Amino acid sequence: xxxxxxxxxxxxxxxxxxxxxxxxxxxxxxxxxxxxxxxxxxxxxxxxxxxxxxxxxxxxxxxxxxxxxxxxxxxxxxxxxxxxxxxxxxxxxxxxxxxxxxxxxxxxxxxxxxxxxxxxxxxxxxxxxxxxxxxxxxxxxxxxxxxxxxxxxxxxxxxxxxxxxxxxxxxxxxxxxxxxxxxxxxxxxxxxxxxxxxxxxxxxxxxxxxxxxxxxxxxxxxxxxxxxxxxxxxxxxxxxxxxxxxxxxxxxxxxxxxxxxxxxxxxxxxxxxxxxxxxxxxxxxxxxxxxxxxxxxxxxxxxxxxxxxxxxxxxxxxxxxxxxxxxxxxxxxxxxxxxxxxxxxxxx
Length: 348
Prior knowledge:
CATH superfamily of the largest domain: Type I PLP-dependent aspartate aminotransferase-like (Major domain)
Structural class: alpha/beta
Order of helices and strands: EHHEHEHHEHEHEHHEEHHHEEHEEEH
Number of domains: 2
Number of helices: 14
Radius of gyration: 21 Å
Distance between the termini: 22 Å
Number of strands: 13
CATH class of the largest domain: Alpha Beta
CATH architecture of the largest domain: 3-Layer(aba) Sandwich
Low-confidence stretches: none
């Protein structure tokens, strides 16, 4: 085994040499006082890229999501979100703990709910409204992590936005992998980000920055967001040393995501040619491959363990599924090797 092929997530990516040089040379200041010029430059560049008035640099995407929820709801409200959405299923009940709101879960088709789902949920809440929770926020996740990196159909998203607006609900876009969605769909990232109150994008996944996400919105919301960021312990000082890597990420790392998508499609094709293996969601839109191995005769946990013994690591987020994520550290030879090892483990 020459090296570990780590496909647990695109969060395992490492900063590039250019990022490291930029970090070492970054001009810095105290960002809590808004005196870090590198952070300010990153925020301005991201706001322009996403098509919003302002942006805020935050340590994590989870914090960005939770800031938005806190800004756009009141205690006792409900938040419409898909059943495997990150802010519902992977953020430690943050919306309840931090903002005093509860999720109202929509069951989507491969991670995507449609306007009828939202209409029914909103109408249901409007009946006997003085006895029932107010739905104040709708969250869309694009791409959808736990639906195999599904890219939201643009027309479906627009319909949901229009209905939510008509019913008085705010909208947040969990765009942790929005750049993947833009590359996969051939759509400008600003066109995918339009129509929301707030948008969060991650710099530390496929774009390879060591940490950090961006929250974008109106100037007023972002100013309030600075207060909530401090409340949550996210006020950072000379953080331009990290923001410098983020500037390199958005300038140079977006277009190369297409390579990750190509590798993911080839991996999906190779794995689903093995007996009993299917794509869990019937598609591979971007850089996430989730396979269903229920009919393999070997458990997902055993397959994961045996792959690891051969130098390939992945996750099994469910009893019968495995998730493999391609990223900048995974090359074409790694894909061939992974398929070959899986063939040995599962059989032809």
